[in-house]
C-alpha cells in the first residue's frame, strides 16, 4: 500500500502534457514549391540603349528580333534617329549611286568582251588576205610598190585597238566593279526594307518592293555564273549579259516609284 501511494505521488510531480486533436490546417499537405520566375526581357528602349555601345551594323542586325510588329507601327520616335529622315534618305542616295555604278560596270564588261571578240575578227580577216610570196631561200618577198589592201588596213587597225584595250585592264576592273556592286547592292536592299519597317512597322507590297527583290536576285544569279565564265563557257557569258541587261531595265523602271517614296519620306518624317 505504501509503495502504491509513493508511485501516485511521483506521477503527480511529472509535467502534464496536453494532447490536442490535429486541426484541418495541420492535415493539409505541404504546399508545392513555386516555379522560379523567368526574368523579363528588357524593354525596347532599354535594349536600344544597350546597342548604342555596339557598331551600327550589329544594331541594325539585332533590331528585327527586338521589335514587336504591333508596337512598331506606332513607334512615334521610339527608335530615335533610325526613324528619322536622315536614315530614310540613305537608301535612295546609295541606290542612285549604284545605278550609275551598274552602267559603269556594264561598260567595263563590254570592253572586256571586246578584247576577246576582236581577236576572232582579226583571225577571220587574216584568212582573206592573199598569202605573201616566198623566195627560194625562204624569205618573204615584200612588194613595196603595191599599197596594202583594205583588209590589211583593217587588220592593222583592229590590232592597234586590241593593244589599247589590253592596256585598260578591263577584265580586272569589271570583276572588281561587279564584286562591289554585289556586296553593296545586297546590303542596301536589305537596309531599305529594314528602314521602312522601322518607320512604319510593315513593308508595302508593290512595284518598288518587287523590282528591288528582282534586282537583288539578278545580282546574285549573274555573280553565280562567274566560275563558268572563267572556264570559257560562252553560254554562261551570254546569260550573264542577259541577266545584267534585265537588271538595268528593272533599275530604270524602279526610279519613278522610288522618287514617289522619297516624297513621302519628306512628308511624314523629320530631321534628323
TrEMBL record:
The keyword Coiled coil does not apply. Coiled coil: none annotated. The chain crosses the membrane at residues 89-110, 177-197, 209-229, 241-263. Residues 129-149 are annotated as: Disordered. Residues 137-149 have a biased composition (Polar residues). Keywords: Membrane, Transmembrane, Transmembrane helix. It comes from the Eukaryota. The keyword Nuclease does not apply. It holds the Pfam family DUF4079. This is DUF4079 domain-containing protein.
